[in-house]
UniProtKB/TrEMBL annotation:
EC number(s) stated in the UniProt entry for this protein: 1.1.1.298
GO MF assignments: 3-hydroxypropionate dehydrogenase (NADP+) activity
Pfam families on file: Nitroreductase
InterPro entries assigned to the protein according to its UniProt record, in alphabetical order: Nitroreductase, Nitroreductase-like, Nitroreductase_HadB/RutE
Superkingdom, taxonomy of origin: Bacteria
Name of protein: Malonic semialdehyde reductase
Coiled coil: none
Residues covered by the Nitroreductase domain: 14-172
Keyword annotations: Oxidoreductase
Root EC class: oxidoreductase
Family annotation (Gene3D superfamilies): NADH Oxidase
Amino acid sequence: MTIGAEALDRLFREAHTPRSFDGRPVSHAIIEQLYDLVKLGPTSGNCTPARFLFLTTEDARARLKNAVTPANAALCAAAPVVVVVCYDPLFFEHLPRLNSEPALRDWFAADVGLSEETAFRNGTLQGGYLILAARALGLAAAPMSGFDAFAVEDNLLADTGWRANFLVALGYADEPSAPVRAPRLSFDEACLCL
């Protein structure tokens, strides 16, 4: 069974990355609802390594100012919420509770390269779920990469051990009409079927 055209429009066809936000706040209840959707998305072995730092106050968002590019700084300042999408390098410590495979925790703990790769890959996947869940809840999401991850980690994540992956500005878009969508690659340019 597929979802309807309206849902596909909201998630993909009509959704755009916002250039500005209208100033309406995003409630804590919406943020919790957002995470409750994100956590249901699949990850390999149910490892769920993503961690999310929601910057909801002006003071918290201001702490990003010197760590992001000027264009991103303006967007972060305007957004009611900025999410630092992170991953936990020690995600495997939770595996005994999340996965019934008895030796899985020890397997990841013994291989730093494997655990780092798994945490980054699956944490990125969960960040994608965050964008889609935000759209499903009526929010606009602006993912961004132009920032100094080490500065963000030092300034905001030092006590967590989490690693910063990318940022997402969240809010209600302040755009009366959708901007023209930037071009995308065609199926033949981006896909192979063997």
